[in-house]
User: What shape does this take?
Amino acid sequence: MFDSITENIYFRTSNTFDSNIGLIKHEDHIVLIDAGTGMNHGRLKRDLNAVGIELKDITDIVLTHSHIDHIGGVLPILDESEVTIHLHKAEADRINNGDTSGTLSQNFGHDFPPITIKGILEEGSILDLGTIKLRVYHTPGHSTGSICLKVQDTPILFTGDTMFPGGSFGRVDFPGGDGKTLVKSLERITSLDFDIALPGHMNPLKHNGKKSAIASYQMAKSWFKV
Ligand SMILES: [Zn+2]
Assistant: This one.
């Protein structure tokens, strides 16, 4: 089920192995932030229908990184929709060159098929959806191309698997993960101006998101002995 965060922004908290999924409905743009594993595609379709969205309406999917629990859901959507996929360059270039090992799909017994990522993101990229603009912050550590997305002129930050509630943060033991890099990224997040944190897993923080980011930063700092 998609919960409304603002008039245009919705959030679906996962109760499976899927990542959480954000939804921005604005003017001609229907944008998903992350797409889950794809294993529960029928349910996602019904949840989208419940807020008036058909799969063919989706214009863009912005991935906070390319692990299978975030990117897998792109595949069944691509079957039904002409959608532009956006991902940070560090991970998009590899996928566009045919190397999908970074999705970790093989850990789950699947080969991830080649797809084309047209939206190549970098630090400071702005996704312009008309009056809503999304600003990309490159926050590596959980993976090389992890990003956070700030909805400009709102207190909302999508934190991907970089920062989780309760002083928690993404794991760094997958290929491309690095604890010290994650600590720097968490420190960066604590300097941003936000109150609502929408993470890649666990519950959204509708208040005090920044306070929670500071707790995650301090926890990571002591955990990784930085
Ligand atoms: Zn991940």
Remarks:
- The CA atoms of residues 62 and 86 lie 5 Å apart.
- Residues 209-223 form the longest helix (15 residues).
